[in-house]
Every structure is written in structure tokens, then in C-alpha cells.
Predict the 3D structure of the following.
Amino acid sequence: MTTRVPVICIDGPSGAGKGTISQRLSTQLHWHLLDSGALYRVVGHACTLAGAAWDDVPAVTAIARNLDVAFSSTEAGVAVALSGEDVTDAIRSEFGGQGASAVAVIPEVREALLARQREFARAPGLIADGRDMGSVVFPDAPLKIFLTASAEARAERRQVQLMQRGESVSLPRLLGAIQERDARDSNRDASPLVPADDATTIDSTRLSIDAVLSRVLNEAASRGLVERTSE
Ligand SMILES: Nc1ncnc2c1ncn2[C@@H]1O[C@H](COP(=O)(O)OP(=O)(O)OP(=O)(O)O)[C@@H](O)[C@H]1O
Ligand SMILES: Nc1ccn([C@@H]2O[C@H](COP(=O)(O)O)[C@@H](O)[C@H]2O)c(=O)n1
């Protein structure tokens, strides 16, 4: 596969800041945005609506293959619709994340979503947010960032984020859920969460969002993908 359209991959574990950085990059550069996690979340959500268990491989695969999902840009970010119904908020819960992580271990599901993800690569460029963007979906991408942070920092960030949405979850429970999700994402056979061989790792534990953004933009500038800024 040749990647003619420039793609910046932002991979890493849950809560590392991928979505935040990807959204900021997409807005600043006017590049398209692929939130691949949303696709897995929609599959998990569609299973729940259909009464299919997340580990029922034939049922989940059929749902992934026939997924009627649409992404649209809004002032608040990217809106997600499943069969015409807005599921933007519904898929963002902790439960939605667990469902996504469960269906994401199924190789047939990953295969079913591959072409759909690659279709997002359109001029002038794509910011691809996920777990296997650099290692599997866009292996020829000119810039692959592996964004990480300690599990504790990620749990604290997630707690603040959930509280802002009116969901209250204790810190130990969130830390446990993050560690469980990390283990499942990293140890699965199909496209595990690992940095691509040519990825640049950024640890955001002690970095502000602006500092992370500036590092990514510097990496992009050093590859001639964007103009160098004075930041
Ligand atoms: N460097 C940072 N410092 C402090 N807070 C951050 C930083 N980066 C992101 N955050 C905050 O952490 C929370 C999680 O960030 P975000 O949703 O971008 O993570 P993510 O990696 O996309 O997670 P997931 O893969 O589960 O969707 C958000 O509330 C965000 O504002
Ligand atoms: N490329 C990807 C993206 C996501 N997943 C799985 O989906 C879960 C939810 O992802 P979020 O980024 O929305 O939190 C995640 O835990 C992964 O299990 C994936 O496998 N590949």
C-alpha cells in the first residue's frame, strides 16, 4: 500500500491524550481526522443494541461488516451516527470503552474495519488516532507518534473527563479498568498495542497538552509535512 496523502499517526494507550492532540492537529492543519476507537466503540454499541454478546465472533463480525456509521464535523467535535441515530455521547462511556476493547480482539472485526479506515486518507492529509494506525493501518505514514503516560496520570485525567460528563467513577476503579484495558490491548494476537518500529515515543505524564502538541508539530516540520512554527 502506498500512502500518497500524508498521514500522521497518533497511537498509544487509553487516556494518553491521543484524541485531544489529534483534534488539535486536525483543526490547526485543516487535515482530516480518523478516530478509529470510535469505530470499535460503535461496533460494541451496535452489539449491545442487537443483544449480541461482545465475544460472539460470528455475530460481532457480521455487525462490523454491515456497520452503517457516519462521522460529521460539528463545533463540539466529531459527531457519530449509527444507522442515522446520534451515538456520539452513548459510545463515550466507560462501558462503551470496555465493549470496544472486547470486540477489538476479534481479527475478523479488525479486518472488516481496515478498508473503511484507509478511506479516511484524503488530501490535504490525515491525522489517524488509534492503537495500530502506524503498525497496521498506515504502515507507510511519514510520521508515527506513540503517545503514552503513566497509568496513574491517565486514570486521573479520565476521572476529570468523566466528572465533566456527569459520570462519577472512583480513582482505584478507573486505574484498574485502564490497566485491564492496557493488558487486553497489548496482549491480543490481532494488531496489539505496540509502537511501530519507526514510531517516535512521547511520554506525556509531565507534559502539558500544548507541550505535546508542540513536540508533534516539530516532528512533522522536521519531516517537511508542515511549516516550522516559532513555538
Ligand atoms: N498532556 C496532558 N496533560 C493533562 N491532561 C491531558 C493531557 N492530554 C490529555 N489530557 C486530558 O486527558 C483526558 C483524556 O485525553 P484523551 O481523551 O485525548 O485521551 P485518549 O488517549 O484519546 O484516550 P482514549 O484512547 O481512551 O480515547 C482528557 O480530558 C484530556 O483533556
Ligand atoms: N485502532 C484502534 C482503536 C481502538 N481500539 C480499541 O478500541 C478501544 C476504544 O478506543 P478509544 O481510543 O476510543 O478509547 C481501545 O481500548 C481498543 O481496545 C483498537 O483496538 N484499535
The two ends are 34 Å apart (CA to CA).
